[in-house]
UniProtKB/TrEMBL annotation:
<comment type="similarity">
    <text>Belongs to the alpha-IPM synthase/homocitrate synthase family. Homocitrate synthase LYS20/LYS21 subfamily.</text>
</comment>
<keyword id="KW-0808">Transferase</keyword>
<dbReference type="InterPro" id="IPR000891">
    <property type="entry name" value="PYR_CT"/>
</dbReference>
<comment type="pathway">
    <text>Amino-acid biosynthesis; L-lysine biosynthesis via AAA pathway; L-alpha-aminoadipate from 2-oxoglutarate: step 1/5.</text>
</comment>
<dbReference type="InterPro" id="IPR050073">
    <property type="entry name" value="2-IPM_HCS-like"/>
</dbReference>
<dbReference type="Pfam" id="PF22617">
    <property type="entry name" value="HCS_D2"/>
</dbReference>
<dbReference type="InterPro" id="IPR011872">
    <property type="entry name" value="Homocitrate_synth"/>
</dbReference>
<dbReference type="Pfam" id="PF00682">
    <property type="entry name" value="HMGL-like"/>
</dbReference>
<protein>
    <recommendedName>
        <fullName>homocitrate synthase</fullName>
        <ecNumber>2.3.3.14</ecNumber>
    </recommendedName>
</protein>
<feature type="domain" description="Pyruvate carboxyltransferase">
    <location>
        <begin position="41"/>
        <end position="294"/>
    </location>
</feature>
<dbReference type="InterPro" id="IPR013785">
    <property type="entry name" value="Aldolase_TIM"/>
</dbReference>
<keyword id="KW-0479">Metal-binding</keyword>
<dbReference type="InterPro" id="IPR002034">
    <property type="entry name" value="AIPM/Hcit_synth_CS"/>
</dbReference>
<keyword id="KW-0464">Manganese</keyword>
<dbReference type="InterPro" id="IPR054691">
    <property type="entry name" value="LeuA/HCS_post-cat"/>
</dbReference>
<keyword id="KW-0460">Magnesium</keyword>
<keyword id="KW-0028">Amino-acid biosynthesis</keyword>
């Protein structure tokens, strides 16, 4: 969070003449102000463009179509594809996806020149994302063009795309290492010729959330068109940067599934929505089919042959696992105590870990119930001690803990051999 604007600073207990207790303001309440688009943003899903730049990525046409359809069903606003001039197959794939008739608009990413723009129009894209490097590094070491040339070409390309009736975004590459005056005057110019969006791209992943906030807020004061943002994750800031960009008035965020892209990638779709569903639950839940996140991530993970990271927001294998006894007790009473995200929103279930030395008797009591057994609290405490004792000696599996519970139960007075007939499924605890 940037904390540079909004309501937080104005909060506080005011006046001493108010009668009765004054509710304490939440110091961590969402920051909001008139610039913020946190509850009104659009996603440009770039798995099929940025994601194709991921080291392991090779998407055949069938896979691209499958991913595009899934992203469309999920509810993303735009799907961005690799430039049709990258290869002949890229051209044909763009044509094929543009013809699917998806609700999401099909964009393709092109360099800032008329030949690329013409090819993209021919390939059937509904919008073009034009990009050119403006930083001194790229001007010197990549394309070698000066700002005057860049501006002239940009206007020419934008006017051509508009004349074809397509949407157009114009973006600099490496925006955060570009000269601010150059950048703002270029964007002011393209805004004046009717560009739909300008783009801020942290191509090298160098920006911090505060820098993002400052740049976007400044740009918001200079252009009237939409602002698209693109954040690489080299220093782990890609979600925070996207969030701050929206707070500062950006309108569009680029994502890719699992964050795949050049180097270690960009803002991941799932992680970004984890952030956004906390900040703008109504908007996010009404617009995106959150229960498809796992399926889409699994689809892409398989296509590029990676595993979902253990600590991935929402879908990491332990994202909704509670282990410590104190946590488990509170979670079983009220999941909000240790969960900011509700697994049910994503079609997932929470798991209360009970087969460890950190377990507590509340978690074990739930497991006893799931196994269809009846014990008094004192008995549960006793069997919990046995589980902890074994778990102190070696790591134990669910089966080990279950067998301790069953054996203990059988030893209780009046219990016969055939009373334990409960489930042996792992303890997934559904709860409100
Ligand atoms: Zn990128």
């Amino acid at each position: 969070m940037c904390g540079t604007n909004g309501a937080n600073g104005a909060n506080g207990v005011t006046g001493s003449s108010i009668a009765g207790p004054v509710p304490r303001p939440n110091p961590y309440a969402n920051t909001s102000d008139f610039l913020s688009n946190v509850a009104n943003f659009k996603i440009i899903e770039s798995t099929l463009r940025e994601g194709e730049q991921f080291a392991n990525a090779y998407f055949d046409t069938e896979t691209k179509i499958k991913i595009a359809k899934a992203l469309d069903a999920f509810g993303v606003d735009y799907i961005e594809l690799t430039s049709p001039v990258a290869s002949e197959q890229s051209f044909r794939d763009c044509q094929a996806i543009a013809k699917l008739g998806l609700k999401a608009k099909i964009l393709t990413h092109i360099r800032c020149n008329l030949d690329d723009a013409r090819a993209a129009v021919e390939a059937g894209a509904q919008g073009l994302d034009v990009v050119i490097g403006t930083s001194s590094f790229l001007r010197e070491h990549s394309h070698g063009k000066d700002m005057e040339y860049i501006t002239k070409t940009a206007v020419e390309v934008i006017e051509y795309i508009k004349s074809q009736g397509l949407e157009v975004r114009f973006s600099s590459e490496d925006s955060f290492r570009s000269d601010l005056v150059d950048l703002l005057s270029l964007y002011k110019k393209v805004d004046s010729v009717g560009v739909n969006r300008v783009g801020i791209a942290d191509t090298v992943g160098c920006a911090s959330p505060r820098q993002v906030y400052e740049l976007i807020r400044t740009l918001r004061g200079v252009v009237s068109c939409d602002i698209e943002t693109h954040f690489h994750n080299d220093t782990g800031c890609s979600i925070a940067n996207a969030y701050c960009a929206l707070e500062a008035g950006a309108t569009h965020v680029d994502t890719s599934v699992l964050g795949i892209g050049e180097r270690n990638g960009i803002t991941p779709l799932g992680g970004f929505l984890a952030r956004m569903v906390v900040s703008a639950p109504e908007y996010v839940k009404s617009k995106y089919k959150l229960n498809m996140i796992k399926e889409i991530e699994d689809m892409v993970a398989e296509a590029v042959q990676v595993n979902t990271p253990f600590n991935n927001p929402i879908t990491g294998f332990c994202a909704f696992t509670h282990k410590a006894g104190i946590h488990a007790k509170a979670i079983l009473n009220n999941p909000s105590t240790y969960e900011i995200l509700n697994p049910e929103d994503f079609g997932l279930t929470r798991y209360v870990h009970f087969a460890s030395r950190l377990t507590g008797w509340n978690a074990v009591k739930t497991r006893v119930g799931q196994l269809g057994l009846t014990m008094t609290d004192d008995q549960v405490k006793e069997v919990t001690a046995k589980i902890k004792a074994l778990a102190d000696v070696r790591p134990i599996a669910i089966d080990d803990a279950d067998s301790i519970i069953r054996t203990y139960h059988l030893s209780l007075p009046g219990v016969s051999q055939n009373t334990s007939n409960g489930t042996s499924e792992p303890v997934a605890v559904n709860g409100a």
